[in-house]
Amino acid sequence: MPPLKLALAPLVLLLMPITVFSDQDGKTPSSLFPDAGLDAAVRAQVYNKRDTVVPLTPDDVVNVSQIHASSRTIKSLEGIQHCGSLMLLDASENEISDLSPLARLPRLQSLNLSSNQIHDIAALDGLAAMQWLDLSGNDVRDLSALKKMANLRTLYLADNQIESIDALTELRKLWSLDLADNHVSDLSALKHLKWLRTLNLDANPVQTLAPLASLQELKRLILRGTPLRDLGPLIEMCRKDFEGGRHFAPFLRVYLSEDSRTGDSLGDQSNQLRSLGVKVHVSP
Q1: What is the rounded CA–CA span in Å between residue 133 and residue 89?
Q2: Whole-prediction pTM
Q3: Closest CA to 94 of 66, 111, 71, 118
Q4: Over the stretch 257-274, which tens digit does the pLDDT of each residue have?
Q5: Domain count across the chain
Q6: InterPro entries from the xrefs (predicted)?
Q7: Structural domain of residue 25, as residue ranges?
Q8: How far is CA 105 from CA 74, 101, 162, 164, 181, in A?
Q9: Phi then psi for 199, rounded to 5 degrees?
């Protein structure tokens, strides 16, 4: 072989692996994660491959416990099922619709899927370790998959298409619930959630607060943009507390909007609440 060709041979061999692992069309060849955005987010948690394009393997990701994948234009979660130790996933502000890869992640405790394109959450059924869940800003209607999440503490469901919250009846450890901008009118499912401290009902067609009568741990109740014309059940709760231990009313904050105080006004009733120690905030 001529001397020039002999000199070039090692260089060609060195370049070959770079060609094999190059990224094409936004997908990483032979990767566990077909979506390049998700691959990059997971790769950031794998120290020995963090700054490479070498394909990830199941052994690489089996002990990954956190993935921060917000705003990465992710369309698919395929491959994440290999992260068997995953406890926290932030995949907010993406383009995700299919949650089926999450069904095999029983250790998940914190999941942020806000601002995606999610309609069906059936894949979350059985994730009993969940404690913090954000599904706000999607197209969710059916909450049945949440029934078994007995350890759930915080649940964000704002800006969806929810009409029924019956699936939340047994979530007895829940202390923060955001239902803003939905279509919920019946609050009966909340009557046994005695540890609930924050409840956001902003812009829902709520007609009565009667189901909340036993929720003595409430600290923040947001009622802006609702058609409520009667705060009687809330006043009665606070009056009983005012005449008793006073451990509830003085710590309660109620948020109303100015337009909910017109006509058959809530003005007098909000003043009654104030007289019982409740802090009432009225916004334009």
Answers
A1: 10
A2: 0.87
A3: 71
A4: 876 544 445 788 999 999
A5: 2
A6: Leu-rich_rpt, Leu-rich_rpt_typical-subtyp, LRR_dom_sf, SDS22/Internalin_LRR
A7: 14-134
A8: 19, 8, 26, 27, 30
A9: -135, 120
